Every structure is written in C-alpha cells, then in structure tokens.
Amino acid sequence: MLAADDGVAPNIIAPVRMSSTFGDLLAARVAERESQIVLGLDPDPGALWPEVASGAGSTAAAVVAHCRAVIDAAGPACVAVKPQLACFERLGAAGWEALEAVFAHARERGLLTIADGKRGDIAVSAHAYAQALFEGLRADLATVNPLLGRDAIEPFVAGARAADAGVLLLVRTSNPGAADIEDLELADGGRLWERLARITDELGADGVGEAGLSDVGAVLGATEPHHIPRARELMPHAILLLPGVGAQGGRVEDVAAAFAAARAGGLVTASRSIVGAYRTDGGDPAHSARAEAERLRSTAWALAPA
Amino acid sequence: MLAADDGVAPNIIAPVRMSSTFGDLLAARVAERESQIVLGLDPDPGALWPEVASGAGSTAAAVVAHCRAVIDAAGPACVAVKPQLACFERLGAAGWEALEAVFAHARERGLLTIADGKRGDIAVSAHAYAQALFEGLRADLATVNPLLGRDAIEPFVAGARAADAGVLLLVRTSNPGAADIEDLELADGGRLWERLARITDELGADGVGEAGLSDVGAVLGATEPHHIPRARELMPHAILLLPGVGAQGGRVEDVAAAFAAARAGGLVTASRSIVGAYRTDGGDPAHSARAEAERLRSTAWALAPA
Asked: To 5 degrees, how large is the angle CA A139–CA A140–CA A146?
C-alpha cells in the first residue's frame, strides 16, 4: 500500500506487519520469545481467580480483570493468547467489550492474538466475519470451520492477508466426537480430515513466506498425536494449532512431529491446565499459572529442532 | 418447573412456551400467521434503507433503525426473522447491542427469532455458545455447524430444550462450495450431507412434539431443491430451513417437498430479495419489501398441504 516515495514518514509505518507474511511474523515472534505456547482464555464466571475478580463491578469487568491477571502471570512464557469467543458472547454486548479489552491487553504485552470462534458461513457472511475478526478485533489468527467448502473459506483467507494475519482451519479437532464426522472414510480414499488437510494446503499455497510457513494453518487436536506426522505430510507449510494438552488429556511431549520443519510450525495451546493450575498444586493462582506455562514452554522448546 | 399447586397465578405463566415442544410452538405460529417465510436480516452498512438510516447517530444505530423498519414492513408476511450474526459482530460491542435490540423488536412484533451464527465447538465451548444464544439473545432457533460431531452438538440441543427452543444443523448449505465437503461420497455409502441428516434425525428423536416436528432441524439450501425429497426421507420430523431463495438463485416454487408432512416442516428464508426489492422494482423500500415477502408467503402457502 505504501510506495517508497509517497512522503509518509517512516516512523509511522509498522515495519514487521507490512513487510512479511504472517508465517514470517510468527517465526520471528516464536524465536524472540522462545515459546510455542498459546495461552487459552476461556473465562468461566464461576471459576475466575477469586482475589482478582472479587472487586469488579460487573461480570464482564471481573472477566477482564481475570484475563489481564492471567496474561500478566503466564504471558511471559507464551507467544500468543487464544480467547474463546463463546465465553465472552454469553455476556452479551458487555462481553464483546471485554473481549476487545482482552485483545488490547494481550497486544500491549507483546503477545499475538488468536480469535477462537470457529466461524464459517457462505461467502457474503464469511466476509462479514472476516471484518469482525481481522478489522474489529485485529486478530493475528482466527479459527475457521471449513465444512461449507472453498468459496466459504476464501473470504477469511483474503481478509486475513489484507491484515497481515492468518487463518487456522479445523482439520481434526480434540474432542471424542471428532470421530463421528472428521474421521469418516471417503469413497475415493482417505478420511475426511485428510481431505480438509489437503484443502488447507491448497488454499495456503500462495501464502508461504521465507520461514516456510503459510498463512493458512490447521487446528489439530493433541489428544490424538498419531495424526500429527500424517498431517505434517499433507500440509508441509501449515502452522498447526494443537489444542487438547492438559485438561483434555493430551501431552506436550507427544507433539514433536508438529515442529519437524520449523519451531513455529506447531503452537501448543493450553487453557484450563494453566489457569486452574493452582487448584491442583495449592499455590497462588498467578504463581501456579506461570509455573505451568513455563513447564509447557520449556518442554516444547526442548522437543523442537534448533 | 411449575407444579399444579405451587400457588403461582396462572396469568404470569407463558403457556405456549412451557407446555409444548418447539415444533408444536412453531406449528401453532405458522398456522396463526399463515406464513412459512423467514425474514433474513444481513444488514450491510453500505446498503441500508436510505431514509431510515440517514438520521442515525452511529452505524450501529443506523443498522437498528434499518432492521426495525424492515421488520415493520415485511414482518407481517413472515413467521420469523433470522439475523445474521456476522453482520452485527463486525460493528463490535455496539453491534452486539444492535443485535439484542433487533431480537427484542422482532419478538414485540410477534415473530420468532433465528440466531444465524453457525456456531460449533467442543462441548465446554458449545455450552457457552448455547448460553449466548438461548439465554442471552433468547433465540427460538439457532443454526449450528455439526462438523465436530455429536458431543459438540449435544450442548446446543440441551441448551435449546431448556429454553423451549430448537437448533438447525447445517446439513447441505446453499453455496456452490458445499459440493467440496458436504457432497463427498463416503466409503460405506451415501454422501456426507446424508450422514449429517441421519445424525440430525437421531439427535432430534427425543424432541418430536404432537405436530410431528422435532426440535432438531436442518439447514438445506433451496439452490439444490432435488435434495429436499431425500432429506425429508432421512429426517421425517425435521424442520427444514431453506435458504438461497432469491439472490442466490433458488425458487420458492421448487421446495414443495419440504412441506410434505406439515406446513411448518419447511421455513423459506429470504434476505436480500426482500430488503433490496425496491432496487429492482423502483418502489418505496418498505412497500417493495412487503410486496415481495407477501409474494413469497402466498406462493409457499399455496404449495403446502392444507
């Protein structure tokens, strides 16, 4: 958008966001923070950190105070945050304001932001969702449901690229029910999730940066880590978001194949196991969260190629 | 929840909502309003009704004024409204407030409400979405994406039932890209959308009311009406939401098979063709919208069994 001689003073240009693909931006951030950990934020009004939330004047204010405290505690061991949109939407308009405040706080702390809304709709509505996610929330990544096919995914990819951001398509999710649909065997061979992986690779082919990572990635549950080598084969350039570590039973030690090509090729996301660590170890919420995030960070970092 | 002798005065009980399933409620409303038409509300800030929106102080206020005017004009020929959540979310927190205002206005006008957000997530998040949709927005129906399987759909069904509402699972959508995934042939026979139809029927089996309609229905694009007889065979009790009439090329005349069992078994949804009718016929926006909604209403009503 900016020509070399357009008279704009260089100091108002954000150079990283304008000069490279999302994959390159992510690779740089992962290297800088020495972390591939994503802090999931699924605030449950009934399970907020007691000391932080008790003084707030409303449920939405309590959720913001809680999320800020969690980001301040565990964020230094992480590269990104992943707010779960459902948890904010259930608070109505005040919840959407809280969501915006949490995104802003994460950015201030140097963290990338992943809008976990799993949106998906026909093109005209997908375009509106892309505006909400990449212009409204200014998300760096957004999760997208690919069931409606290519023409429904493309507006998300276009919206992400226009904002130097990326998308993560649901390929094989972390829940037991994923077997019902995503694991169905197709008449012409392979499983449905493998077809979704191929579509991810195709749609991301134009978005591969110097770091070898595309701006179209995939969500791949860490609860079934035997899928990861096959997923990596089908999507050599995809950023793999790996949910399911901790509360859902996945282990960070089992996801090494995600990092085969590049450290930033796998992002390990954990939510309840970090935020609720104090319930298990009996410590201070912030201290326990930081310790668990740091444990995940160092474990994942040790697995990855140098 | 209310025992016969609990001392609550009968006039504070909402009898329809407490005494029957969602399918019975819908059948009663369809009969009362003599309409199976759903008014889609996908407000584009660049294409609002000029006279209505010009005086508003903000984009969100303009969207509310526009949607209220559209509901007042076309609503009398309809049984429900279907706000597209994406179009509100792109306006941020103010957009969510606008969404709540539009839902409230539709209810005041005696219309049922369909939250078209196509949500879908693992169980804990699906539960949060169900709270947002059925408790927050008080939607009568919500569209749900079934890709993540049964355990991800069940919290929506449970949340809907607790609110005397229903869900509509995406089975075969109206966009061309639906062929990419939804039409894939499975190794054990049939297409993916047919499997989704079977799951819809199974999950809805416990929610069939006296009118023969279940509280778990399906979204089935009117752009490929040859699917409707097969869909009806696989889902004999499902309410079928039929998008794609008008701007997307579907014709109301082609969906008769949806009404085979009951008039309320098919809901024909139209958005741009109603709201933008004045662009084609050169008339007043409200008058043209009402005329097009009434044309759809009378055409669909004539197709249905008495």
From this structure: 85
Q: A89 in contact with B at a CB cutoff of 8 Å?
A: yes
The pTM for the full model equals: 0.93
Whether residue A96 lies within 8 A of chain B, CB to CB, comes out as yes
Q: Report the relative pairing of strands B240-242 and B216-220 from DSSP bridges.
A: parallel
Touching check for A173 and chain B: CB below 8 Å?
Answer: yes
Do B90 and A135 contact (CB within 8 A), yes or no?
yes
Q: Which residues of A122-148 are buried (b: 16+ CB within 10 A; e: fewer)?
A: bbbbbbbbbbbbbebbebbbbbbbbbb
**Out of B92, B153, B192, whose CB is closest to A96?**
B92
What's the mean pLDDT in B132-136?
A: 98
SS3 A260: coil
Complex-level ipTM: 0.93
Tens-digit pLDDT profile for residues A112-148? 999 999 999 999 999 999 999 999 999 999 999 999 9
Pick from A280, A228, A224, A218: nearest CA to A259: A228
- Percentage of chain B beyond pLDDT 90 is 82
C-alpha span between B159 and B127 (Å, rounded): 7
Q: Is the pLDDT of residue A261 over 90?
A: no
| A4 Cα to chain B: minimum distance (Å) | 32
